[in-house]
Amino acid sequence: MPGTTLVVGATGTTGSRTAAGLTAAGHRVRAAGRRAKPVAGAEPVAFDWYDPATHGAALDGVGRVYLVPPVGDTDPAAVMLPFLRRARAAGVRRAVLLSSSAVPAGGPAVGAVHEALPGLFDEWAVLRPSWFMQNFTGTHAHARGIRDEGVIRTAAEDGRVAFVDAEDIAAVAVRALTDARAPGTDLVLTGPEALSHDDVAAIATEVTGRPVVHRRLSQEQLADHLTTEVPAPFAALLAGLDRAIAAGAEDRVTDTVRRVTGRPPRGFRAHFEDARRSRPES
């Protein structure tokens, strides 16, 4: 497919990796973010979901888009759907949306965008990854809790999650954007094993050599705790997703990463060990 690929959120967890994968494969990439920051091999462009004045330059000459929804917005469709209609009018043929394994088409937040996407583009895919491994090793509250306090706080109880590496999400995104045939469906992406947060705490303890515990909170306690990180409505949404984990909603493993990329997904321990080596103080 001719044209440039616009990567929205190109400095974020999956966007940066997707942009890197595309440029490494020789594709032209426009790296979009609130500030036009240099991204290796890509053309930087300023982009703000809430500022339509930034949308025209971002879309000029673009044939494909990778869409990371605005962070913390419980109704992203309000800004995303007008942009997507504009993208279609500007000549975008293929759209790949980052959603979540916890949010089906028509579900809350980005679920409304997922539901609308097939009616907007003939070529499309929705990536629905499980919870990111990077949440425990980057700048997320879980990672900071491990480093600073030796604590992981959730309302997930004994619920298990097949955490997925952002590198695997990006590898699937690159294929969904560039393969001759678009997936035309949603793709649930997981790691190779489902783990409880007690399991995660045990791995973190073994790898770091410092005690890490899983502190179990009620849904209300977690929502209150998260309001220090995100707006209250989004905190309530996240706490509700933890309760869904407790009920078994994320206790599944898929073969999607292997099927799409031809290689197995990375395991949690391997990710955590590598992150520890690259950041010894974590």
Radius of gyration: 19 Å
Let me know the number of strands. 11
**Range of helix content:** 40-55%
CATH topology of the domain at 4-129: Rossmann fold
Number of helices: 11
Strand content: 15-25%
Instruction: Point out poorly predicted stretches.
Output: none
State the secondary-structure class: alpha/beta
Largest sheet: 7 strands, parallel
Annotated CATH architecture of the domain at 4-129: 3-Layer(aba) Sandwich
The named CATH superfamily of the domain at 4-129? NAD(P)-binding Rossmann-like Domain
N- to C-terminal distance: 42 Å
Mean pLDDT: 95
Name of the CATH class of the domain at 4-129:
Alpha Beta
What's the overall geometry? Answer: globular
What do you see in this structure?
Strand 1 (4-8), helix 1 (13-24) and strand 2 form a beta-alpha-beta unit. The chain has a domain at 4-129: Rossmann fold. Helix 1 (13-24) packs across helix 6. Helices cover 40% and strands 17% of the residues. It is of the alpha/beta class and 282 residues long.
What layout of secondary structure does this protein have?
Blueprint: E1 4-8, H1 13-24, E2 29-33, E3 43-46, H2 55-59, E4 62-67, H3 77-89, E5 94-98, H4 111-120, E6 123-129, H5 141-148, E7 151-154, E8 160-161, H6 166-178, E9 186-189, E10 195-196, H7 197-208, E11 213-216, H8 219-226, H9 232-246, H10 256-261, H11 268-278
Parallel strand pairs: 1-2, 1-4, 2-3, 4-5, 5-6, 6-9, 7-11
Antiparallel strand pairs: 8-10
